[in-house]
């Protein structure tokens, strides 16, 4: 099989496999090993980092969506007049799975001497179960405890901790009345009973959001209509497309906002960080790849007699250049394959490796208060792996151009003079 390969590739394979047996320059084997190891380490690091960032984005998005609807529908004229009819029209789209009305109040919660800002979401418990998973994240009570007229409330666990309340305690909700004048302003006050807490794993919601029955929330604000309608989809990734379809097929006064737009700044920031991290870690691969320059320069000097003999036997400068380009590319491919294998292996076992690392260093690497997560998630994606491998091989190939061009310009007579 090897005999059928082009002789340039045969020589390149021979030079690559014989590096450890180089007698004229034993440092070649060490430098070559460093080049391969550097490429492998850079590729593995980039795969692991991007996999962790993908996992972080996926995990946090999933936790966000336990509170954030896939699509939010509101009427530009104010409250939503007939949410049942609007939901029936939306359900005409096969992608829509369910819907629930909501009311949002901004106010302050007061307990003893402690006051905290809060966004109270008035919900219809039976319908809310079709659009979010919040019912399964409540402790100390259930979503069904939110009955109209009883003024019960469920707090985010972090908000409850800041207020120092527990199930059964009573607290006051202070809400600014709509249209209040600046000369005579008096907040509305309503006493609520805490029936439980929820934990969605996202500090922004756990520390600022509370749930109440929609009728109770409307009575506090004296609203005649719900604020809007939340929709859930069979496939959340289709939310932008479905929102456009609903906007085109339903009354023009309705406004549709999908979950990617509601958290646009957060996702844009994460994507920007991911791109910057990719560029920074690509520099590691670039440094390792350009170590091939020194390796191949030394190899060319070590093989000047071989090059001269090949030239006298009829090899063209282009063929000599091809030999060393193929050799450098082989080193790059070997390092890339090793890096991909190591990176994928680590990325798929981060949940096992990180507890061991934390135990060795004696501290937690991930603060739940800052990152919303207590363990490191990982989601290796083949698109990222292919892109990383392609960049690594491309940089390795570019690094071979200069020394290979130098090898092609060697004068056979000068090289053989001192042999």
From TrEMBL:
Keywords: Cell membrane, Lipoprotein, Membrane, Transmembrane, Transmembrane helix, Transport
Domain MacB-like periplasmic core: 32-217
InterPro entries for the chain: ABC3_permease_C, Lipoprotein-release_system, LolCE_TM, MacB_PCD
Transmembrane intervals: 30-53, 276-298, 319-348, 385-408
Lipoprotein is among the record's keywords: yes
Location in or out of the cell: Cell membrane
Keyword Transport: yes
Domain ABC3 transporter permease C-terminal: residue ranges: 279-412
Predominant location category: membrane
Any Pfam family the entry gives: MacB_PCD
Family affiliation: Belongs to the ABC-4 integral membrane protein family. LolC/E subfamily.
Protein name: Lipoprotein-releasing ABC transporter permease subunit
């Amino acid at each position: 099989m090897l005999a059928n390969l082009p002789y340039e590739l045969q020589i390149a394979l021979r030079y690559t496999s014989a590096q450890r047996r180089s007698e004229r320059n034993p440092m070649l084997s060490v430098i070559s090993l460093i080049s391969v190891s550097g490429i492998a380490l850079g590729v593995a690091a980039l795969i692991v980092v991007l996999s962790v960032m993908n996992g972080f984005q996926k995990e946090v998005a999933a936790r966000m969506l336990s509170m954030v609807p896939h699509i939010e529908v509101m009427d530009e004229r104010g409250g939503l007049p007939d949410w049942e009819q609007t939901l029936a029209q939306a359900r005409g789209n096969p992608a829509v799975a369910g819907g629930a009305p909501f009311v949002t109040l901004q106010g302050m919660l007061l307990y003893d001497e402690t006051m905290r800002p809060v966004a109270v979401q008035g919900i219809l418990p039976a319908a809310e179960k079709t659009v979010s998973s919040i019912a399964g994240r409540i402790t100390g009570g259930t979503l069904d405890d939110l009955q109209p007229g009883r003024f019960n409330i469920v707090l985010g666990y972090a908000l409850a901790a800041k207020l120092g309340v527990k199930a059964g305690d009573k607290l006051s909700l202070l809400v600014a009345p709509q249209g209040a004048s600046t000369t005579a302003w008096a907040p509305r006050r309503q006493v609520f009973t805490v029936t439980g807490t929820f934990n969605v794993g996202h500090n922004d919601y756990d520390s600022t959001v509370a749930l109440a029955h929609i009728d109770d929330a409307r009575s506090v604000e004296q609203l005649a209509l719900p604020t809007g309608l939340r929709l859930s989809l069979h496939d959340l990734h289709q939310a932008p497309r479905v929102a456009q379809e609903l906007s085109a097929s339903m009354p023009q006064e309705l406004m549709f906002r999908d979950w990617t737009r509601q958290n646009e700044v957060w996702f844009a920031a994460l994507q920007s960080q991911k791109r910057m991290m990719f560029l920074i870690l690509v520099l590691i691969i670039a440094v390792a790849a350009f170590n091939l320059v020194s390796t191949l320069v030394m190899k060319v000097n070590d093989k000047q007699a071989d090059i001269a003999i090949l030239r006298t036997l009829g090899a063209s400068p282009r063929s000599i250049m091809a030999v060393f380009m193929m050799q450098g590319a082989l080193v790059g491919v070997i390092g890339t394959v090793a890096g991909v294998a190591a990176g994928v292996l680590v990325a798929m076992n981060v949940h096992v490796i990180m507890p061991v690392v934390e135990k060795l260093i004696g501290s937690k690497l991930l603060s739940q208060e800052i990152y919303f997560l207590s363990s490191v998630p990982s989601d290796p994606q083949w698109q990222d792996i292919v892109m990383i491998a392609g960049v690594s091989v491309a940089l390795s190939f570019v690094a071979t151009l200069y020394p290979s061009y130098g090898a092609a310009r060697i004068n056979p007579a000068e090289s053989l003079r001192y042999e």
